[in-house]
Amino acid sequence: MTVYQNPTCPKQHPQHLIMLPTADVFDCQPLSSKDEAALLAQASSAWKGLVDNAISSELYRIEKVVRNETTGRCATLRKPRDTINVNQDGVVAHTRTRATIEQAAAFFYLDTSIKAEQFARVMDELVEAKRTLY
Q1: Full-prediction pTM beyond 0.70?
Q2: d(CA 89, CA 124)
Q3: Is residue 80 within 8 Å of 93, Cβ to Cβ?
Q4: Which residue ranges make up each domain of the chain?
């Protein structure tokens, strides 16, 4: 594990430190074809649920508009219900950006330290190490 200071917390108190795993902590054995098929089916179902929830969330009223101090961008927040489990509350934030789908995807592909730093600044999340597990 590697310890990093949270960039949004200027004080060096223990509660402001976060533990991040390094890439060497993952040792994934090859998947059986049955396990691989089950994981892909689960991922497909999760993806479909995510898209269904995102689309249906537009039917709910805007609860709040927030502004990111770092980027200056505004986001609308809605509180929809899950499309599968209607007893489960959710929160959806929506913002607009001027980018192609390729540019948006490239933002999440952290192949350089500069892109990782930009991601950390905008998303307020650090990426210590990444590794393809399967």
Answers
A1: no
A2: 24
A3: no
A4: 59-96, 97-134
